Amino acid sequence: GCSEKENMKELSTGTKVTSIEYITKDDRNWFEYFYYTNDGSLDEVQDSYSGLGRKYKIEYENERIKEYSTYEIDGNKLLFRDSIIYNLNGGIQAIYNFSINPGEDLRLDGIDEYEYDNKNKVVKKSNYSVASQKYYMIEKYYWSGDNIEKVQVYNGDEKRLYYEYFYKYDDKVNFKKNNPTKISNPINWSNNNVIEIDWNDYLGNIELPCRPCKIEYKYNLDNYPISVKYYWARLKLTYEWKLPDYNGRKTRVQPT
Questions:
Q1: What is the pTM of this model?
Q2: Minimal CA–CA distance to 147: which of 172, 169, 175, 124?
Q3: Mind listing the pLDDT tens digit for each residue in 67-90?
């Protein structure tokens, strides 16, 4: 049955995710598919969310993501392009968001700017709007080891604190960490997976059925999540087949 399949997956290996299935409480399902080049770098992500369908193409320079472009999955129409600038320490300094306006070329819409502490941990992100020529949102990050444990969200001039979020983690590998479509949010730069979220809401906007909200995981032998349970959905993750390594580790060999 189903649990038997789950148990097999828990004995499986793999570090490169090939698909994520989303199953929501109200029975809406969609998939994300991940495609890699021969050298193992992520080349394309396809997302069938809500029937719209998005395709992300990723370009590299010096083994770092240079830009990722968002297309409609049908018809290949370019919608957005995000270009990444790095600082001297290799951290992301800024992401330039270009978007297609009807009948126009790509136009610069916004800039995400990142600041770091002396340990090269991101401590601040500022969202800049090109249209209004103003910062409209500031986020501040507080680290514990290799994970962000607190995020504060302010308005553009940092005078009003809107939200505070508090995070707890597992000790396994963060499956979102190298996904370019999630790269602009530093919470996805943490090493481990979030297992609990709590918050202070100074605007009175957050209405969730849980507080704190807990996230449950099952993992494969390489410590990557194979299933994730949120309050609103379940995720099933599939990984690229990996040849067994024979230095004493038991890995599942493909049946002949």
A1: 0.88
A2: 169
A3: 999 999 887 889 999 999 999 999
